[in-house]
Design a protein that fits this description.
flat; 76 residues; mainly alpha
């Protein structure tokens, strides 16, 4: 039980320290290249809208097909 608690605390501490370690790893002397044109990897807002619509359709399907049958017998 104590080992599990120690493992959870160690994982939480490493997650909290990760941004600090990543920031320390970058050098202040590093200069960025000038941006000449927009990146095509992002894809704009279109994919985000599609994903949101798919998630909303799934939730609507689940809500509409749920019969809320609380009178069903429960086997023990």
């Amino acid at each position: 039980m104590k080992l599990r608690n120690i493992a959870i605390a160690a994982a939480a501490a490493s997650l909290a320290a990760a941004p600090i370690a990543a920031q320390a790893a970058t050098s202040a002397d590093r200069a960025s290249a000038p941006v000449t044109e927009e990146s095509e990897l992002a894809g704009g807002i279109g994919p985000a809208i599609i994903i949101t619509l798919i998630a909303a359709a799934g939730m609507a399907f689940l809500l509409l097909t749920d019969d809320d049958d609380n009178d069903a017998p429960i086997s023990a």
